[in-house]
Write the structure tokens for this entry.
Amino acid sequence: MQEGNVIEVEDLTKRFGDFTAVDKISFAVKQGEIFGFLGANGAGKTTAMRMLIGLSKPSSGEAKVAGFDVYRENEQIKNNIGYMSQKFSLYEDLTVKENIRFYAGIYGKSDQFIKEKTSIILKQLHMEEQANNLVVSLPLGWKQKLAFSVAVFHEPRIVFLDEPTGGVDPVTRREFWQMIYKAADKGITVFVTTHYMDEAEYCHRVSIMVDGRIEALDNPAALKKRFNARNMEEVFLKLARGAKRAE
Amino acid sequence: MISVQHISKSYRQGKGQVKALDNISFEVLKGELFGLIGPDGAGKTSLFRILTTLLLADQGIATVDDADVVKEYRHIRQRVGYMPGRFSLYQDLSVEENLQFFATIFNTTVAENYEQIKEIYVQLEPFKKRLAGKLSGGMKQKLALCCALVHRPDVLFLDEPTTGVDAVSRIEFWDILKRLKADGITVLVSTPYMEEAAKCDRVALVQGGKILSTGTPDELLKGFGQKIYAAKAASMLALLEALKQNALVKDAYPFGEYHHVILKEDRLDDLVHSLGMPDLEIMETSPDIEDCFISLMSH
């Protein structure tokens, strides 16, 4: 891998029968970068992400994540990344503390480490009083902030966030992005998908997938310039409207 | 067409109670496209379930098409179309079968009302033999809308039809709603995407079971009543922290490419001076519905 890169992808492809979900995508992500991974529904984002986190074997092409090969070293990849999604991130019938303990335990962290870091995190989230409450009782925004903290608890090199802010109120959504910025500042690479186009502006670089291919990849300012657009929503619409694939 | 007066609803949760709706009142006029704008947990779904006669309120009165949601629920069920937030069609029936099923329940046929759904259904027709469970997200959403429309309702209740849907499909969906409105159908639609408020005739901003504000999108923007600045610098994180710590700043938060800044008093020059950032770019901008929401939330 090239110095400073934590993800390197070359001609990565995934076919299901005669359907090519991901069609020869190539890109690299640098350490500490906030990388926005956009695309219309059905463009192939989820399939691509599943290959990168070691849950799905590519049909062809190469990819290395945190220095490990997606074909042969997917277990090592899982140890070096964090993952959170909008749909499932925490066990609702466990308490806040139990969720932290459970995830940290899976990653093999010591009791001492878990104990110390749990109190730091609860303090940062202002959730000390809720530590022993069931997650089901938390408002969505709190859940998502907690889920992010849990996803980076074991100090992974990369965290994958799949629509982390869907349905979250505008104030909490912004607090969530401040957590992302701080994580990136500490050197954690953030790979994020979103349907909120204002959030695309918060990313260092953005890729836009159309029909299984990456049609554009650059920083938001350069993309806006290239597509003569006022904002990222216009860039996205210009590209995604060209999609041929019926979802 | 829809009248909601002092509706409240609580749920039991463990030992405590959660107030899903807290004394909500508003009206929707005939033929209006009315938006309930708010995040998850605002109470939108509870309200839809009460208005479609699927859930009883603890307190308050609501009517739909002049019929009481409790006493005259039969009338309401005949006259409304409801598209719940969760995909509610039969996954193991085909596209065509789902549509026929919903038409039959309302004692009508697809043929009789084909005009009503035609524009949307033509996109689904190539897949009419496919099982509903095998459709993509956008297609499922269009089928659900057809099923809610097949009996020619007067009022349409759409609970978060665009959640998790990409920006292109969202725009298409709002175009469909505009056409339904032109056909005279009253539409109550909820969404967590603030920018979609602009597409409604009137909206209510909802949060934590309460209505923060009601009005036309323009009225809400005019009601913002504060000057708002857009600021940018090379390090956006450093800029945000500097703004938040500055005594002249009332509020500052990221907003797309810029940070939005609201000052305690109109002393922009003093702010620029005290920040002392050579690469700072700052200019006045106009508020957006999301700015209104943020401002109302912090009150």
